[in-house]
Amino acid sequence: MVAGMEERVLKGELSISRPSRGDMRDVIEIQVKDEGSGVRFLTVVVDPAVFALALTGLSGQEVELEVKGLDVVGKTKERRTASLTIDPDSPLRHYTKTKLSEHLAQHCQEPGWHLNGHLGSQHSIQHLPGGYVRLNYSYYRYVDPV
After folding, report:
1. How far apart are CA 49 and CA 113, in angstroms?
2. Where does residue 69 fall: left (phi above 0), alpha (psi -120 to 50 degrees), or beta otherwise?
3. 144 Cβ partners below 8 Å, 6+ apart?
4. For the segment 31-77, what is each residue's pLDDT rounded down to a tens digit?
């Protein structure tokens, strides 16, 4: 083991697929997802013939690796919901979803949290009695497991 590298056992998911990306590449894609953070941190892209060689015992085949989110692997994703109620006379009532998301990003960010201001789900924008509108959104952050 390399000095300074700790070894931990984590739970995760393994997916093997043959994606159709529209680029005419014939590849096998292997993805590894960390259960705690929910991050797909490793994607292995390999030619089907090379994959078959590796499966049948000819190890050490060269592959393409796509790595991301290693800083949160092993952490737990915490989520928190929030809402913003817009008055009937506010100009925000007439904004598009994109502009409302921008408003949330500019005015509703909280230190230490990532704002998820996506307003595309069915319950993210609620029209209330009296002309009020409620925006439902969420925050998330990654924390060390307890």
Report:
1. 44
2. left
3. 75, 76
4. 999 999 999 999 999 999 999 999 999 989 999 999 999 999 999 99
